[in-house]
Structures are given as C-alpha cells and as structure tokens.
Amino acid sequence: MKRTVLFSLLAALLLTASVNADDEPVKTKPAPAPARGAITVMPQAFTSFGAATLGGYLYMIGGHTGQPHHYDREGFNRNFYRLNLRDRRGWEVLPGGVPLQSVALVSDGERLYRVGGMTALNAPGEEHQLKSTREARAFDPLTRAWTTLPDLPDNRSSHDAVIHKGRLYVFGGWKLAADALEDKSDEGDWHDSGLVLDPNADEPKWEAVKQPFKTRALALASCGDSIYAIGGMTPDGMTNAVHVYDDKKGEWGKGPDLPGFAFGTSAFAMNGRVYATNWGGQLLSTAPGEDKWREEGTLTFPRFFHRLVATGDNELAAIGGVTRGGQLRNIEWLKPGVEGPKITSLTLPAPGDAKARQGVFFFNSTLYVFGGNNSVLDHQFEPENFVNEAYKISLTDLSAQRIADLPVKRQSFHTFMTGTDDRFAEKLGFAVGGFGHDGKAAITHGDIYQYSIDADVWEPAKLKLPAPLTQFGLGEHDGKVYVFGGLDFDPARGKKERFQESRTIWQYDPKEKDKGFVALEPELPTARRAFGGAVLGDKYYLVGGMTKNFEELDRCDVYDFKTGEWTKIPNPSNARLSPKLIPLHGKLYLVGGSSPTLEGFIRNTSVEVFDPATGKWSMLIDDLGENLGELQAFAYGERILLYSVHNDDNEIRLVFIEP
Length: 659
Known about the structure:
Blueprint: H1 3-13, E1 17-19, E2 25-27, E3 35-41, E4 50-54, E5 57-61, E6 80-84, E7 91-94, E8 104-107, E9 112-115, E10 118-120, E11 130-132, E12 136-140, E13 145-148, E14 160-164, E15 167-171, E16 174-175, E17 189-190, E18 193-197, E19 207-210, E20 219-223, E21 226-234, E22 237-246, E23 251-255, E24 267-270, E25 273-277, E26 282-286, E27 294-298, E28 307-310, E29 316-319, E30 322-323, E31 326-327, E32 330-334, E33 342-349, E34 359-363, E35 366-370, E36 390-394, E37 399-402, E38 414-418, E39 428-432, E40 435-437, E41 442-444, E42 448-452, E43 457-460, E44 473-477, E45 480-484, E46 487-489, E47 499-501, E48 505-508, E49 517-520, E50 532-536, E51 539-543, E52 556-560, E53 566-569, E54 580-584, E55 587-591, E56 594-597, E57 600-603, E58 607-611, E59 616-621, E60 632-636, E61 639-644, E62 651-658
Parallel strand pairs: 3-33
Antiparallel strand pairs: 1-2, 3-32, 4-5, 5-6, 6-7, 8-9, 9-12, 10-11, 12-13, 14-15, 15-18, 16-17, 18-19, 20-21, 21-22, 22-23, 24-25, 25-26, 26-27, 28-29, 29-32, 30-31, 33-62, 34-35, 35-36, 36-37, 38-39, 39-42, 40-41, 42-43, 44-45, 45-48, 46-47, 48-49, 50-51, 51-52, 52-53, 54-55, 55-58, 56-57, ...
C-alpha cells in the first residue's frame, strides 16, 4: 500500500488523534462552540456623531466625514439614519438631518433628544470658522417630526448627554464661536458647569448643575442613582478620570480611572453595569460600589469618537468612529462576558476576477491584493486563468478600490514589506517568486516585483531568487528575510524532473543588498512545500505540507535562527496541505488548508493552537462554520484575520477570530 493511501486511511480513522514527536497517539479534546457575530456596514463612514436606540431601531445623526482636524461646511453627514435592529439590513433616511459634529442624541423610551454640536462655516480650503450651537430638539418616531426644546443657555459642543431618571443631563464640552475667534484658532471657552432639563415639564427649562471638572470629548452613562462622566480632555491634556454624580445628594464623587487612553471614548449602562471602551479596543465595565474596571472583551476594530449603545438582549453596538487608517464604516455587535473564542464575519462585493492564490500586503488596516487565478477549480493553469489585477481593501471604510495592475499575470506569491516601521520611509511591498504561464507552459518563477504603496507603482526589483520557487515559506527575523523549501516546477525538464522540491534555506540581508540571497547550512531535514510556516520568537515553525512524490508530511520541524539547529514538535490532530500558521501573543494558530480522508482531500475548517510553553497542540475551534477556500491569514490586533475570494458569488469574505 502506498504511503499516501495509508496516511489517508489513518486520517479518516483517527480524526481526533494527534501524533507527537515520538509518533505516539495523543487524544485531542473537542473545542467549545465559539460565539458568532457579524459586522454591519453603515451607509457612510463618520465620526463624532449622535446615536441612540428606540423602539427596535438604531438612530444616527450628524458626524464628521472629512479628514481628521480638517473642517469645512461640506465635511459633515447631513442625513438622519435609522437601522432596523430586527434584520439589521433595513436602512432609512429620516427628516431632520443636520451638519453637526459632536452632537448628542439620547432617548427616554418615547422620544429622541438632540443637543448641541459644532458646525463649520468656512468653505473647503478656507481657514476654519467653527461654531458651537445652542440647539435642542426632540424627535417623535410616530409622527417622524422634530419639535423645539428650549435652547441651551450657551453654545456647547464636544460634550455628552444622558437621560437619567427621565431628565436630560448635559456635561462637559466647550464653546466655539467663529465670530469671536480673532486668531482663527480652534480653541474655545471650556464649560465649567453642566445642565439639566425635564423635557416633559409643562414649561421645560434648563438649570445649571455644578461640575467639578472642565472636560470635553468625555462620555456619560446613567447607572442606578449615578451618572458616570468618563475620560476626555482637560485644558491640561488627556484624562482617564471618572467622576460620578449622585442626583439624590447633588454631589460628585470619584470612580475608578478607566484603564488606557479615554479621549473620545463612549459609554453606556446595561444590566446595572457601565460599559466603556478605550483607544486600545478594550471593552471594560464597572458598577456602583466597585473600585476597578473589569475586562469584558475586545473590539475587532479599536476606535474612538464612536458611539456605544445597548441594543437589548445583553448586547452592545460599537458604531462608527475613527481608528488608525481612517474613519470606520461599520457597526460591531458585542456580547460582554461570553467565554471562549469569538468569530465575527463580514462580506463585501469583490471588485475583480481573482478567486485564488493572490499575493497580499497587509499594512495600516488595508489589504493590498494582487494577481491570482480566476477559477475556483484546482489545477486551472491556462494563460487566461492567471490575472494581474490589483486592488486595496480598506478595513476602515470597508471599500475595495483598484490600484495599479501587477506587471505580470501570476499566482502564489509570498510577500514581505520594508519601511513600515519608519513613518518617513517609502513603504515598499515585495512579491516573491510564484507561478504563471510563460507563453508555452505554466512554470515557477524566481523574479521579484516591488510595489510602492505611496506612489501606487509596480516595478521589477533588482533582488531575485537564486532559483524559481513557489509553495515555499518566507519569514523575517532580526531584519533579515528567509526563504524555506518550496517547489521549482518546469514541464520542459521532462516528466521525472519537472517537480524539484527544495531543502535549501535562503537568507537575504537588506543591509547587504549586493549579496542577494545566500544559502545557509544546515538544510531542511526533508524537502518540503505547501506547508504552513511562521516566525515566533527566535524560531521558524514548519507544519504540514508535502515532500517528494506527493507524499504528505506528518512531522513539524522547527528552525532556530540563532543556532541554525533543527528540532521537532508534536503534530496537530490532522495533516494539512497549504495551511496558514499565524503567530499571536506567543502562540501559533493553524488554519485553513486541506486534509486527507478516504474520499480524498477536503477543506479543513478547524483551528488548532500550539503553545510553546507546554509543547502541545489543542483544538480551539472544531468548525469555523465558514466555507473559506484558498484563504490568507494575518494577525490583526487581538485577532486572526482570514481573507478569501474563493467562491462563485463574487464576494470578499472576511472572518475575524478572537482566540
């Protein structure tokens, strides 16, 4: 019996078994079911807006749509949006949209209340003329009409508002008055007192409330007998202080400081607890009487100048805002306190024809995707199957945009980047090797193309591989680039010699460009291709794959960059071809690829994790529940990001896994 057939039989019979370095079976425990969620795409991206829920709908009003710190009268969201929370697909535009930033929107269960905000009077390109407003309005969803409330005693923006025991409270903020800013600066007069209004009184009237702070860009939340005022900025700089107002006593106390940066945060009370986020993307909670914040999870997209609101059923919505890379165009639905791994999915229209084997640069929350194959079937290698299209996918505004085409039609690149750690350096991506048609046959290539993200220009790189390669591993360590194994395929060499698997380790040091790639000793323990590889610490891990004569590899090898020595670790529960191995927080996560069964190779939808501290694999997720073929995977903040266009629906499928 051939080794490949025997291995397939063992794989089918021992689906829950793992083989360690000594080939002893080890049982793998089933993984707990992951929590699953989705992300909703907003009609447009904006920051510093008002949001509230009422009667099964989420309402959003105002917001800044322009570049940060650039304001003009065209840079505001003028729509008043409503999202049906039952299907989370039905968006409406309601009457009464306003071009206001930092406007507050709150609900008392019957009506919505819009309070204050800032607008710009200047045209694009002119000096800023920013003005806070005194407006206060109420919206009745039954009549879809706004009514006037008493104006604020003075102009106010960069504040927050909250309904507390039926009364409307406003704290924080400052006054910007364009006609009073002789120096044309954006500085305003900081408010040193809050306000309260009973909107249901016969004659509503604003009353002053003492406020022991001068703070803007803060967050308010009503919980029990208290109003929490969280974070923001003072005249002296950012603060993460928490002030707590007791409306019965009319007194302020101190709450626990919010961990991390709390400028532009948002907060909401739910089920007797106050929830807030920080710049790092942590979701935290506290409650009256507690002296610290409790970690409740993390956001897929860390954000600030967003809104956090409760939507019912122990769920929060983190809406819009801004993050590194730009303004966010999504709503993230959060379930605090859920244990175990979390999976969040997102689908976007695909702008091109590629279905598989694309090259990807991942930088600044953007996927730069290029080349690939236009078929979802295996082994489609005619000239028309290879593509050179390229586009960038923004994870902030959830858009896909064409960029300069790749100079060649090719698939199966490996990539690395330079200049990403230096804000002043040119950001260059390098597409290495790959597989494509040369006019006579589909063959492996050894040239390298470089892409300038800043200039949107491709050109051949001076650097080349020593030999044509595809299906290899690429890792970066201590400023150097390493290439492990791989395949050189050329049918012109004849049937016996067309497949040439490599055992070589090639090293490239950008500081010694003239040397190019240099071969290292010792070589790989065995020729290897189509494996999962990753750098973790001072080591490079190789998992799965194939060796000569199409034999699956049932061994995991580890290369030590410092000593040049090879060791082994146990195997995961299933052998895999073309998996992805992702390092995250000191562990390695194995995703994707295909595994052998009696029916042949099938897509592996489990996620396994290796912990170097214990030297063991464990099952994180038994089934992703996502049909993702030919996926790419990356570490993204606290999560693993999976990307795939391998489908007939012309969709980009993104999956975020929080271990």
